[in-house]
Amino acid sequence: MSDITRDDVAHLARLARLAVTDDELDTFSRQIDAIVDTVSAVGDIPDDVPPTAQVVPQTNVLRPDATEPSLPREAALAGAPAAEEGRFRVPRILGEEL
Amino acid sequence: MTAVSMPGVESAPYTVEEVCEQFDPVMGLEVHVELNTTTKMFCGCANAFGAEPNTNVCPVCLGLPGALPRVNGAAVASAITIGLALNCQVRERSGFARKNYFYPDMPKNFQISQYEDPIVFDGYLDVPLDDGTTWRVEIERAHMEEDTGKSLHVGGATGRIHGADYSLLDYNRSGVPLIEIVTRPIVGAGVRAPEVARAYVTALRDVLRGLGVSDVRMDQGSMRCDANVSLMPKGTSAFGTRTETKNVNSLRSVERAVRYEMGRHAGVLLSGGTIRQETRHFDEQSGTTSPGRPKETFADYRFFPEPDLPPLEPSADWVETLRARLPERPWERRARIQTEWGLSDEELRDLVNADALDLVADTVDAGAPPEAARSWWVSYLAQQANTAGVALPALAITPAQVARVVALVAEGTLTNKLARQVVDGVLAGEGEPDEVVAGRGLAVVSDESALTAAVDEALAAQPAVAEKIRAGKTKAAGAIVGAVMKATRGQADAARVQELVLERCR
Amino acid sequence: MNELLTLDAAELARRLHAREVSSVEVTRAHLERIEAVDGNGDGDGGPDGVHAFLHVDAEGALAAAEAADRAIADGGPASALAGVPIALKDNLTTIDMPTTCASRILEGWRPPYDATVVARLRAAGLVPLGKTNLDEFAMGSSTENSAFGPSRNPWDLSRIPGGSGGGSSAAVAAGEAPLALGSDTGGSIRQPGAVTGTVGVKPTYGTVSRFGLVAFSSSLDQIGPCARSVLDAALLHEVIGGHDPRDQTSVDAPLPPVVEAALAGARGDLAGVRVGVVSQFAGEGYQPGVSAAFTDAVRVLGELGADVVEVSCPSFSYALPAYYLIAPSEASSNLARFDAMRYGLRVGDDGTRSTDDVMSLTREVGFGAEVKRRIMIGTYALSAGSYDALYGKAQRARTLIVRDFTAAFETCDVLVSPTTPTTAFPIGERADDPLAIYLADLCTIPSNLAGNAALSVPCGTSADDGLPVGLQVMAPALADDRAYRVAAAYETARGESTGPRIPELRALEGSR
Ligand SMILES: [Mg+2]
Ligand SMILES: [Zn+2]
Questions:
Q1: Torsions phi, psi of B137, nearest 5?
Q2: Its pTM surpasses 0.90
Q3: What ipTM score was computed for the predicted complex, to two decimals?
Q4: Of B251, C105, C414, C455, which one has the fewest beta carbons inside 10 Å?
């Protein structure tokens, strides 16, 4: 049924921002292939069965448009790997890939 | 890489007229509008422009582990209102979805948006063009989503993203409610395509401003337009490959970007090249576009239903309540006002250009006659705004206050000259018009006995003049009137003084 | 062993309220117990103990205990469980303790806020002792996937304590805490409860706020109690449950009367209660000792007056595949936020690398193998080419499972099954076979997919290995009280007091 190759795993890893190693490409392709084979059992289900995304009984749960306290800036930045001038410092950003 | 797709070396070799001899342009416009709600889309942080970095943030809009989004009801109401104003259907059951992609300004690395079931869909906007005709732009959908944070690029030569050493992130804007309004392909505009694009965005801006749901400031990013352009050879009907131009930050740029891309596409196509589907950036300086970073892989956003938020099923009652509150469309309102106030086209245009239409209308609503209201705003107040270097709406006086000044003049408490001093007082922060009148002692002296006494005094001081008047030389009364006005520091009604002088000399 | 360590929370609470004992004494006894038996086997010379805890906050616990004692002395707001210590699964945010989800990527992270359930515990005067171990980001059924080393089953330290909430259940079983909180996405409260001989409850989805629970699979995750008795679980359930506007999936309805139900169950019989035995949860793959203990439990329910019938839920065969599509899909999105930008680990930021590269390196180093595997499966299941065939079909499977439950609850008040097909397996036994481990959640997963209530109550030990077996009781959504009533009746009838019975740990204690 499924046939997850090393290339597929490499592609998935890129999408998911995981710098997987060469060894992992082998292990993961084997394991993911086996798992996908198993879970593909849901493929028997006819499409006239409607999907269920969540089991929440309510609808229209809305919040009033009233301000609530924000975090103090020190608390917001406290966990940051790097911060500067009240902002989160991050490595150089490649141009938008949108 | 072929020469035609190299960044920075392209020019637009064809004019729109030339392009349209051989091609029909197709446009699609995507407009993102930030709502001006008090709080963000999914948390209670203030939705405010220009705050100190990272001061309007919380676990939700920072995407901290464990935080959950909570939908802002006012944003949903605004979304429905916008849809109704654009003649859209409201979906009976809609919901949020996650759009997954990694980007540092997006704290969760997914954007909560809507996907298959936007809250409103299938509408249109009849857009007025310069020649007085109307162009119907069909709206495919408008959906709710959240804005990203903002990054500041440090180092490198330009302070731009390319060549920067690192970036600094401010998440105050993260989670600000956005409505994305997407048109259906706009076909058949031909040479007018750039004009139609600008007119559509202008009309949309005016409608949204009229609804009061957004600041719609393109310069501040509260309204942003992406323009998709493609060409198809004349006589064919299959759309060509399109490009999506971003960073179009003014109404004029919308028109220029479309014009440029039409010419560029034609240049590429006519030289035997092919258009690459890509995102391009508009440069305000040069009026040209340049390609963004090529996509590494086909964008796969892996949309799926947002599990943290229950579905929306706006009740018919709610929708009808919102529909009942819809204001007139701005251009319809302008037409009505022009008739009601008896304005010439030029007078109306001046009002609109001076950003004074709403101010005058509000002044009229506060009880002032249209002519007086208009005259205050376009002359004296416009001068004051000009002197102060601020926009007319930013002047420290309200339409209600102007209406009160007009009323004080009408009832004779103020002369026009005094009224200007009252306005000066209001602008200087001295309080309401009546407070300024009292504070500066500006009311016309209308106490008859006081005036009579002042007249008698002046006559006594100038017996020779008084004699002339009694002898019938009424022109001599001017000297006495002047003396009285001087004595009352100009706060008397000169006409009444004249009458009194003549009466006393009879 | 200090008697305070073997008491049920309800009994502890009674003594605390009667001021026969102080919360400080009780808390100190538990802290000493943790010190004695919780060694993590990290080679520092300490004993290889249960390793239920990733973080113990002795100072904070004693301060909270003192406050509880004062409140009780003042006759103040002292709630039923005021002064009772509790352990918290380390995927719940706590403002005064780190929250790591047993992952390197969050090592040392201190949240700036408390989860709603934690805030409610504090308000009720419970005493948080520390944070318990789990499979990294709650992905697993053995706690072996913790980045900080596995927890061990107090019944046999060479075996797994279940997972993902192995730390919470092991702490309760080992007498390190009378109560704990867990989170259950596919069985992570119930399955550890079963294999450690403790009670574990997954409340109806939406009845306990998820605000502050680090999300694994948002449409399945539910916080719930771990305890030594059904009544204890109900008492804790009442503290943490109920509507919370900070979670818009939270149901705005009164909590089912779980404490009343537990009390009624313990007193009364089960006359007229219709109990359905799900025929799909038997046969191949079920350990004989587990099946025997389960059959005996069903016999007891019959003796209590319940009408026992067999019911068939054929679509439950789709539950495991559907779960292993839905949970990884949601997880791939939920875990995208761990990107080295705003908090947590950052690896490889040498001034030349881009954000993309630093994100990828950090996530590669910061996540364990199971987490990476599930992120990739989820990424795959949601991608344009496979969405319809995988994620979309899994959602349809969910519909069928909901329908099976609905039909079964038309004829039954509750459904029962073994909680898990086998007793605790040896640590490492299934380490290289993710699919084998997934089978541990076979019986628990359907209730996560459908959102109904389900709990596990100890039903003796398996004759083949002497290890604990759990009886799962499932009830319709918002009828959690039914499960409590049946479980409490069964627990009373069985007569065996639970409480820590951990022979090997006595040796550890002695070695101290
Ligand atoms: Mg968008
Ligand atoms: Zn916020």
A1: -100, 125
A2: no
A3: 0.96
A4: B251
